[in-house]
Each structure stands twice: as C-alpha cells, then as structure tokens.
Model the fold of this input.
Amino acid sequence: MLPLRDDIPSRRYPVVTWLIILVNLVAFGWELSLGPALGDALLIYGIVPVRYTVPEVARLFSWPEQLFPFLSSMFLHGGWTHLLGNLWTLWVFGDNVEDRLGHGRYLVFYLAGGAAAALLHIHTNATSAVPTIGASGAIAAVMGAYFRLYPHARVEMLIPPFFLGPYFVVPAVVFLGWWFILQFFNGTLSLLSDPEAAGGIAWWAHIGGFVFGALLCSIVKVKKFYRRHYEDEDMPW
Done:
C-alpha cells in the first residue's frame, strides 16, 4: 500500500519535516560518494545488533561510538526505492503530526521514535551482524502518532504494482491499522525463521516505532497544546 495524500491541511509550515527530508537526501548523496567504502561505513554508522548484545564485540567500542548509530542510522538508506518510499510517507503524515506537536517537540519525538525502534530491533535480532539503516522506524513512530491523533482522516492510496490506479480512499485508522497488522505478521514470521533471511526488512523496528508513537501521543497532552494555539477553530478530527 502506498499513501498518496490525506485530507487534512497543515495550519503551520512543516519546517522540521522538510529539514528531516533534506538531511536524508544529503546523507544519501554522501553514501553514493563512498563507492566501495560504503559497506564499511554502514558497519560504523548503522545499527549492528551484536555490537550491543555480545560483550566481546561491545567492548571494542566506546560509549559515544555505541550511541551515535542510534542517530546516524535513521538518516541512511539502502537505495533509491528505500529512500523515496520513506520520504514520501514522511511527507504525507509528518506535516500534520508536526502541526499538532509543534516544531521542537516533533523533532524530539521523531528522533526518540527512531531510537525506540532501533532498541526493539536489537532485542529481536540479538545475534545479527547485519547493519540496519533507514528512517523507517522513526517514520513508523510518526505513523503511530497520526493513527492516534487523526484516526478519522481520509487517506488516498494505491496498491502496487498498479501505479495508474485504481485509487482507494479509506479512513486513516484503516490504512495505518492494516499496515501495522502486516508489520506484526511479517515480524512474527521473521522470529520463526533465520533472521538473516528476512529480506533485509527490520519488521520489529517498524512495530516498535509505531507503538512508541501511538502510546506517547496517548499519554502527552497534545490536544490541550493544540487547543491553546487554535482554540477558536473547528477540529472535526
């Protein structure tokens, strides 16, 4: 499923969402410039579970070297399809979540969501030596927040490979709920099989990010914050 657009306009310009998109593009340009050295760079800047779960490996790295991949990994991607798919999804859902949370809180939320996703990936793939990269976990947190904050929004989508249609319009709660079910189903299958044969997709990072976003936006007082800024405006969603 590929989301095309939603029906909720942003009240404020999504500065942080655009900044995140720009940083991802610059980072991908840097990846392309590395050539054959890219593999070594991903081992340094990606999330490699055994660096955290195997004491003999962990002691080879200082604590800043262990912490930095939680940030750097979410701005690296494995190819154009990976990059553009992530950034488009972020654009569809991120502007509204940023609008609701505010620019500063949204940036902290995005980075924390990516870190939470990485932690669950490490926990569920403890023996893996494969570096994990991508903004998918952080974007899943944004999707979880959207699921909680805008369940009745309408999302226009298409189903690949039928890129010329037909197009479908469904409530956000249906689109995002079904997306989460697919992640959970595939994530469960990955636990029952060889982790290295999971197709290179960090299913549990997606699950962890989504749950983090949905739960956090259920706890913090985002509605009160939003009404303080738009108290005279209608909010049907």
About this structure: The CA atoms of residues 2 and 87 lie 12 Å apart. The first strand starts at residue 2 and ends at 6. The chain has one domain: 2-230. Residues 2-230 form a domain with the Rhomboid-like fold fold (CATH 1.20.1540.10).
